[in-house]
């Protein structure tokens, strides 16, 4: 059986998160994070409990937990200020708050095993972490309520904005950050700047890589 919430279906046995019958790409640890929260629902888990279950026998920083949470919220289209799925329990941890129901496992159609070139499949690569970007506006920064949280001293609370629109090139613009936003070694000034697949980004001292598989003109297998 799978667990349904909102438009999503979570099949822990097959390690598959799907939306409308199509797989939602999630990094392995992001899936583990979601699995732990859903299994404990509606009980809140402390950050220590989450670390022990997602990273057993491994010491990780609080910024790692927060960064993975930002990745998960982006994949779900969730918002920390008005959460539909994951609520922040300030000073403690997190809780899964969406209504759930058990449902038969959805088998994806053959077409769902590949990503269409026209589907929005943009991501950011930060160190060894792949962060999916949602359609529309994605705010990057240190605040807990941003879409992509990058907890680093050189990154402003609301540092930059990446916009993903179907049929149009992705774009990035600086949001008045202290240490600047850079694309390909050039500091951004003024309005949005187009992004292409493989563009090297820098927020303050943090380096990222923009990946946009829809530009490649061919299908690719969904990675875990």
Concise summary:
With about 220 residues, the protein is of the alpha+beta class. The protein contains three helices and 21 strands.
Elements, N to C (H/E): EEEEHEHHEEEEEEEEEEEEEEEE
Number of strands: 21
Mean pLDDT: 83
Helix amount? 10-25%
Output the number of helix runs. 3
Query: Widest sheet: strand order?
Result: 11-10-20-19-16-17
Could you tell me how far the N terminus lies from the C terminus, measured between alpha carbons in angstroms? 20 Å
What structural class is derived from the secondary structure elements?
alpha+beta
Unreliable segments (pLDDT under 50, ≥5 consecutive)? 110-120, 215-224
Shape label:
globular
Largest sheet: 6 strands, antiparallel
Q: What is the alpha-carbon Rg in Å?
A: 17 Å
The fraction of residues in strands falls at: 25-35%
Structure description:
With 224 residues, the protein is α+β, with helices and mostly antiparallel strands. The chain contains three helices and 21 strands. The strands form five sheets. A six-stranded antiparallel sheet has the order 11-10-20-19-16-17. Strands 4-3-2-1-8 form a five-stranded antiparallel sheet, with no helix packed on it. It has a five-stranded mixed sheet with strand order 13-12-14-15-18. The longest helix is centred in the first third of the chain and has 15 residues, at 62-76. It is globular and about 50 Å long.
């Amino acid at each position: 059986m799978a667990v349904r919430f909102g438009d999503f279906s979570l099949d822990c046995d097959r390690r598959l998160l799907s939306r409308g019958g199509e797989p939602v790409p999630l990094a392995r640890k992001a899936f583990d994070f979601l699995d732990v929260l859903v299994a404990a629902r509606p009980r809140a888990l402390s950050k220590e409990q989450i670390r022990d279950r997602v990273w057993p026998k491994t010491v990780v920083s609080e910024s790692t937990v927060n960064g993975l949470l930002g990745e998960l919220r982006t994949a779900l289209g969730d918002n920390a200020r008005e959460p539909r799925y994951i609520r922040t329990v300030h000073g403690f941890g997190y809780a899964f708050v969406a209504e759930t129901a058990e449902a038969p496992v959805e088998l994806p159609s053959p077409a769902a095993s590949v990503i269409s070139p026209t589907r929005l499949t943009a991501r950011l690569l930060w160190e060894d972490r792949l962060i999916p970007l949602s359609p529309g506006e994605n705010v990057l920064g240190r605040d807990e309520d941003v879409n992509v949280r990058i907890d680093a001293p050189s990154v402003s609370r609301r540092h930059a904005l990446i916009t993903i629109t179907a049929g149009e090139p992705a774009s990035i613009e600086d949001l008045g950050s202290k240490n600047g936003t850079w694309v390909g070694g050039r500091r951004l000034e003024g309005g949005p700047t187009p992004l292409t697949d493989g563009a090297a980004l820098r927020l303050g001292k943090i380096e990222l890589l923009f990946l946009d598989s829809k530009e490649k003109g061919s299908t690719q297998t969904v990675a875990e």
